Amino acid sequence: MTPPPDYGAPSAVLDFAPPAPPSRTSWRPNWRRIVGTGGPGLLIAVGYIDPGNWATDLGGGSRFGYALLSMVLIANVVAMVVQALCVRLAIATGKSLAEHCREAFSPRVVMLLWLSAELAMVMTDLAELVGGAIALKLLFGLDLVAGVVITGVGTLLLLSFGRDDWRWLRGLVFGLVLIVAASFVSLLYLAQPVWTEVAVGLLPTPQLVTDPAMLLLGIGIVGATVMPHNLYLHSGLLAPLGRTLSRSTQRQAIKTNVRDSNTSLGFALFINAAILIAAGAVFHAHGMTEIADLGAAYELLNPVLGSQVAALLFAVGLLAAGQSSTITGTLAGQMVMEGFLRIRLAPVMRRLLTRLAALGPALLYFALAGEGDTSRLLILSQVVLSLQLPFAVIPLLGFVGSRRLMGEFALGRVAKVGAWSLAMLIVGLNVALIFETLS
User: Fold this and answer.
1) I want to staple 133 with a disulfide (CB 3.0 to 4.6 A). Which of 86, 147, 258, 341 is the partner?
2) What is the pLDDT of residues 306-315, one digit of tens each?
3) Which pTM was predicted?
């Protein structure tokens, strides 16, 4: 079989060094090669702990305590399902979601999908840059404009030093995520939540539907979780692997990478839950039920907990989350451009364009609205992301359900019904979030 043309292969972005196809004389699957590809799930999980998620988790915990933990759990399960479909598509076909869109649709539709994806990239980077800038302001007293510029430049430097080395980049992101996790483990130790109440919060209650305010925040948690750029990034990272494996080894590769994805997303679930639990224990338990701004949370942590390190831990975790998320957002932007348009630019140029596209709206917002209300900008970025989500999820489900495209790896009838029902739920929740936010 003639391999597909290598247009916009993600290996041009990351030095994935995919293994060579197994020789015809070798009938044994190279398990060591397959297991060695583990790690893309870590970059995907970073998108689920970005500053936009912090804002929704913080608001939910401060207002309703642990009651919305069940929504955090549901959102993570939805994410696991959608990312597993990306794994299946990439490994079974050897092409990314963006590449499939380019080949399946007319040029006008492709252009629409590309613009939608690029807008999602900008909004994702926007939230992450603002989160990093807020952290720099909290730690060093810098104004937000300077913080946004420093955060953007810092990401470029970190990526340039890596020279597109997958192992170096994976280690960097893993280190940043560990900092976030360590910060919130320490905060939970200081906050001393009531763990029996935390366990009860994992169970959905009728109040989630009957209480409009709780429903809105719950929708916000789910709507801010599944992001379009993660679908393009995950499928783009694994597409080179799919082109190198025989049909006999693809099934095991899918299982291995789904396991990698679920493990990493489980780690993201812990961090999101920790943010909400800490907000419930620190603010809701002390009658502070309207804390949704990251800066306000920082200012109140020390007085409430009586510890000088609480606010420092919060700011350090926020900085690490924002910085790691900007890295993965940049990579996703590169894969979108290569997959949709077959355009390859020099790595530094691609990164510079992605950063400038996000820096512009942030600086314009601060120039027009000032630096007093960052929560409004974060909410705006999540609303725009919600608008873009159907443009990525619906094509994904169409591709993985096609037996002509996927062969034996196509979704069965029951799986199709379940996946489309889940997609309609996601779209419905995001539409509700948009209308409620605008109203």
Assistant:
1) 147
2) 667 878 888 8
3) 0.83
